[in-house]
Amino acid sequence: MEKTWNNKAWFLVLPVLLLVAFSAVIPLMTVVNYSVQDTFGNNQFFWAGTDWFVEILTSPRFWDALWRNLIFSAVILAIEVPLGILIALNMPKHGLGVPVCLVLMALPLLIPWNVVGTIWQVFGRVDIGLLGYFLNSLGISYNYTQNPTHAWATVIVMDVWHWTSLVVLLCYAGLVSIPDAYYQAARIDGASRWSVFRYIQLPKMKRVLLIAVLLRFMDSFMIYTEPFVVTGGGPGNSTTFLSIDLVKMAIGQFDLGPAAAMSIIYFLIILLLSWVFYTVMTQSDAEQK
Amino acid sequence: MARITLEHIRHAYSEKAKAAGDYALKEVHHEWEDGGAYALLGPSGCGKTTLLNIISGLLTPSDGRILFDGKDVTQLSTEERNIAQVFQFPVVYDTMTVFDNLAFPLRNRKVPEAEVEKRVNEILEMTDLAGMAKRRAQRLTADQKQKISLGRGLVRANVNAILFDEPLTVIDPHMKWVLRSQLKRLHRQSRFTMVYVTHDQTEALTFADKVVVMHDGQIVQIGTPAELFERPSHTFVGYFIGSPGMNIMPAAIDGATARVGDQSIVLSVAPALKGQGRIELGIRPEFIKLGREGMPVTINKVEDIGRQKIVRASFCGQPISIVLSEDDEIPADPKVAFEKQAIGIFADSWRVKNETAGREA
């Protein structure tokens, strides 16, 4: 086919270009700008080169937050993905139960994030919270504001409560797209429950699972609002994840240069890990062909 | 391999079915021989898939019993009935190789691996899939996938029956012929009882020894392809089987004479009519002679389909079809004559059964 050159077509992509420029490219460039300079206000900037990057990459504070965040993501993925699959497998496929379950599942996703944090913050309080009071009256001295383990447990349970639904809904969508004939054929072939899962359901869920894992990884790696509302990053620094640390640095301490450098490192880490996830999961698919 | 007995089977999909119209499957009471090849033929929604699922155990009938070799299996599950079923759309286990797909039903039943290998290799030969045994099933074409589905049905050594639910729907026309003749050959080799559901008369007539024609939830006729063609027991069978279908026209009977419009047609025997009903005369297009003698017709259209010509005409105001061979000429002043032996008389859609062989007056 012959190509037609018509420069008027640029006007058609212009609105989107402008939108992306203002929402992503320009802010990102501003961050790059901050990351290589030092400022004391008054719009005075001094060239700092790679100093801020070196400072961040050599600071134990950054590495601690990074490890905390990686462990947090690993734990919630390890819980939410199997749990989500399990719930999706057991959800009804016909009848009145379907809308009921779907609405129940969608509810946590519809609640604003800071409200989720507030709910759990109150829920877990020792004096007035149902959970905190209940645990303490059972003799467990639960207190998420003082005990790091309890703080971690609270944040993880909250995230599981908040986000497992997403995995469930995605898996459920994959499951209902399997024609009945597959299950009937499996019954006739004498397949066990495990075989049905392993050879029919899991392969059909693979694509949506990839999306679920990616979304959950990225979101959990960027988690901010809920732990900020519940624990504020404490006790001590025990639940200070990367984004909480970043905000402390940028807004709390007004260290714009190091904060900008950290943002870029943070961004690159997420980009890299997401790419790794994606490649590993699509690769394993391609290899078997 | 089993004889299948259907005892007064009825099925309704709603719990509280009362009237006959509520039943997707009206009463079916038949016995199917061991090792036979049966085709369930009928238009969509006639209850043929319902009947098939009742035989396979995916559905439990509302009423009646089903027996394999005299043993009641009505309440048994699909696995316990030991049958195989092939579905309309190919079902393959995507992540497995072709070999593993075929071995799956055997491995699930703990068949020794040496035996699995032997059986699967036989099936691979039979279905011409030997070259791709190690390939993943996901990337295959629709007809290769459907062959795997067929193969999974055939691989088990002692199934009671193999059921096919419109298995060739998604297959390319030229592959349909190939697969159908393979299936026929497999049946001859294995002597499994096979039940084949289809709405395609060619498929049914070429595959089956006995064709079961279904209409509106009931079986209207069971017969060999020749019987269905020559002696349809219901007007539905008349026009559903054959291409074009039987010409059916309202008629009045007076002794051994049928009157259609202002024409009188002499019958070979006087039909024994019981009471009054809607009387129709049926004749297949192949048994109408178009020539210069007989009753006048008006020709509307001639369709040339290669070896044959189909003439669409009006006879006493009724549209009729006539099949001519390609060399037959159509006269300027066309007349038709019906072959006496081929005329059927139908009362309220059912054939009037009194024309026993040799009773030609």
Helix content of chain A: over 70%
**How are the strands of the biggest sheet of chain A laid out side by side?**
1-2
Strand content of chain B: 25-35%
| Cα-to-Cα separation, first versus last residue of chain B | 46 Å
Tally of alpha and pi helices of chain B: 9
Strand content of chain A: under 5%
CATH topology of the largest domain in chain B: Rossmann fold
Using the 3D structure, state the CATH architecture of the largest domain in chain B. Answer: 3-Layer(aba) Sandwich
> What is the 3D shape of chain A?
globular
User: Which regions of chain A are unreliable across 5 or more consecutive residues at pLDDT < 50?
Assistant: none
Summed up:
The complex is a heterodimer of chains A (289) and B (361). Helices cover 74% and strands 2% of the residues of chain A.
Structure explained in plain terms:
The complex is a heterodimer of chains A (289) and B (361). Chain A folds into two domains: 23-58 and 255-289, no CATH class; 69-253, MetI-like (MetI-like fold, Orthogonal Bundle). Helices cover 74% and strands 2% of the residues of chain A. Chain A has twelve helices and two strands; from the N terminus they run αββααααααααααα. Chain A has helices spanning 9-35, 51-58, 60-90, 97-110, 113-123, 130-137, 148-176, 180-188, 193-221, 225-230, 242-252, 256-287, and strands spanning 37-39, 45-47. Chain B has helices at residues 48-56, 78-81, 98-108, 113-126, 142-154, 173-190, 201-207, 225-230, 235-240, and strands spanning 4-11, 25-32, 37-41, 63-68, 71-72, 83-86, 161-165, 193-198, 210-215, 218-223, 247-250, 252-254, 257-260, 263-266, 279-283, 288-291, 295-296, 298-304, 308-315, 318-325, 335-338, 344-347, 350-351. Chain B has a six-stranded mixed sheet with strand order 6-7-8-3-9-10, with helices on both faces. The two termini of chain B are 46 Å apart. Chain B has two domains: 4-230, P-loop containing nucleotide triphosphate hydrolases (Rossmann fold, 3-Layer(aba) Sandwich), CATH 3.40.50.300; 247-351, Beta Barrel (OB fold (Dihydrolipoamide Acetyltransferase, E2P)). In chain B, a hairpin with a 3-residue loop joins β18 and β19 (308-315). In chain B, α3 (98-108) crosses α4 and α3 packs parallel to α5 (142-154). Chain A binds chain B through residues 179, 181-182, 184-185, 187-192, 195, 199-200, 203, 288-289, and chain B through 56, 58, 77-79, 83-85, 87-89, 91, 93-96, 104-105, 108-109, 136, 138-139, 149, 152.
